[in-house]
Amino acid sequence: MTSVKRSLSIKGHRTSVALEAPFWRILDDVAARRAISLPALVSEIDQSRLRREPAPGLASALRVFALEVATREADRRGAQSD
After folding, report:
1. What angle do CA 33, 39, 40 make, to 5 degrees?
2. Which residues of the chain, if any, have pLDDT below 50?
3. Could you give the CA distance from residue 52 to residue 3 in angstroms, rounded to a whole number?
4. Are 46 and 10 in contact (CB under 8 A)?
5. What is this structure's pTM?
């Protein structure tokens, strides 16, 4: 699967992050549901990751966040179908 690179401003600094398209789709969806911009969501995730010791890389933190969202939604769908 090919990575898609996006450039974002986080805390006034430009950075580029390469993630696979499914991760970007989840992040875009979460930002839209929260009615915030993608850079604002990435900034929240970035702040959270920096509180961890050792701090994971930004791309890893974004993937884990997206995976956690997808897992919660799948669990919720599974619970609703029972």
Report:
1. 60
2. none
3. 25
4. yes
5. 0.89
